[in-house]
């Protein structure tokens, strides 16, 4: 329009701007995710003029945690450390005088493995499959050089040939040991009770080993009587051992923590649909003694003092244990 005034032009320009904004944001006037601004650079926060950068991981006392508080970032860093440690390892492997394999194994276990698995006692203990595979690939570098095998050899075969445990087993074992040690607090008078059951030549026995400040103070050995052991099982011996440990705590009126490697026993005690009369009696007694007794599960591993002691005592109980009788299970009645 020729005769349009300046105010009309300004108004028209403003309308045009509003139209462009509305078209960019959509007909309803709301911004969509497709038109949102993407920040390629992470923002920086300041507190008292100190800049704090946003990071995906954080290193605390040598352990790297990501923003989900997992060890994925820490395990990724181990690969770079592996390349550094391999340099000196290669110098020895490539020498012509063929060093003793026991010497190389000791070097790996005491130097390389310790460097890779720094602080395993505070690791999560439940590694994901991806993290386990990453640890296997890291360990494989040394196993190939140690065993001098073909690159196509399976990692599990290399572990068997070298006699070296898979790398993910070591932090899990250390984590369990740390959890056992952490339970040694004043709340439980530093009394730890380990229980175990076993069956040898149709004889079923179980043991209750009591430790205070890592010192074995008492052992209680039991076995099912001859006419009773026909239908009794390893599972029932584990449950009866837990019950005997709880009875000891009630008699002494002391707080204890019972450790068992029987995951099936823990599951049975937590089950709400148990039909066994003896099992329900054990659950009822443990409920009454919950202020004194806590039952925990641990994975049976070599190196845990209480586990090895109880295993030996349970085998001894099959011959020298005190006879004990419990009613036959429902499955035995025909």
From TrEMBL:
Identification of the protein by name: RNase H type-1 domain-containing protein
Domain of life: Eukaryota
SUPFAM superfamilies in alphabetical order: Ribonuclease H-like
Signal peptide annotation: none
CDD domains: Rnase_HI_RT_non_LTR
The RNase H type-1 domain, residue ranges: 187-319
GO molecular-function term, one example from the UniProt record: nucleic acid binding
Ranges of Basic and acidic residues composition bias in the record: 1-20
Region of interest: Disordered: 1-27
């Amino acid at each position: 329009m020729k005769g349009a005034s300046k105010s009309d032009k300004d108004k028209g320009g403003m309308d045009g701007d509003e139209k462009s904004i509305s078209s960019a944001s959509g007909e309803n006037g709301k911004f969509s995710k497709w038109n949102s601004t993407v920040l390629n650079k992470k923002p920086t926060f300041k507190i008292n003029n100190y800049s704090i950068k946003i990071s995906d991981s954080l290193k605390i006392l040598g352990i790297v945690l990501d923003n989900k508080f997992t060890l994925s970032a820490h395990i990724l860093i181990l690969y770079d450390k592996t390349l550094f440690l391999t340099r000196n390892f290669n110098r020895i492997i490539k020498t012509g005088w063929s060093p003793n394999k026991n010497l190389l194994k000791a070097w790996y276990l005491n130097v390389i493995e310790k460097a890779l698995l720094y602080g395993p006692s505070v690791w999560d203990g439940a590694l994901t499959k991806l993290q386990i595979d990453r640890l296997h690939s890291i360990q494989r570098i040394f196993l190939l050089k140690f065993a001098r095998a073909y690159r196509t050899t399976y990692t599990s075969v290399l572990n068997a040939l070298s006699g070296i445990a898979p790398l993910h087993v070591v932090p899990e074992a250390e984590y369990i040991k740390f959890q056992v040690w952490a339970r040694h607090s004043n709340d439980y008078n530093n009394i730890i009770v380990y229980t175990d059951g076993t069956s040898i030549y149709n004889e079923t026995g179980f043991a209750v080993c009591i430790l205070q400040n890592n010192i074995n103070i008492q052992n209680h050995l039991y076995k099912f009587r001859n006419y009773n052991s026909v239908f009794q099982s390893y599972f029932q011996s584990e449950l009866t051992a837990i019950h005997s440990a709880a009875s000891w705590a009630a008699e002494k009126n002391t707080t204890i923590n019972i450790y068992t490697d029987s995951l099936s026993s823990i599951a049975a005690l937590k089950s709400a649909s148990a039909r066994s009369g003896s099992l329900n009696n054990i659950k009822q007694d443990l409920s009454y003694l919950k202020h004194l007794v806590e039952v925990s599960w641990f994975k049976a591993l070599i190196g845990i003092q209480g586990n090895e002691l109880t295993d030996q005592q349970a085998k001894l109980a099959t011959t020298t244990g005190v006879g004990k009788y419990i009613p036959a299970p429902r499955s035995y009645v025909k």
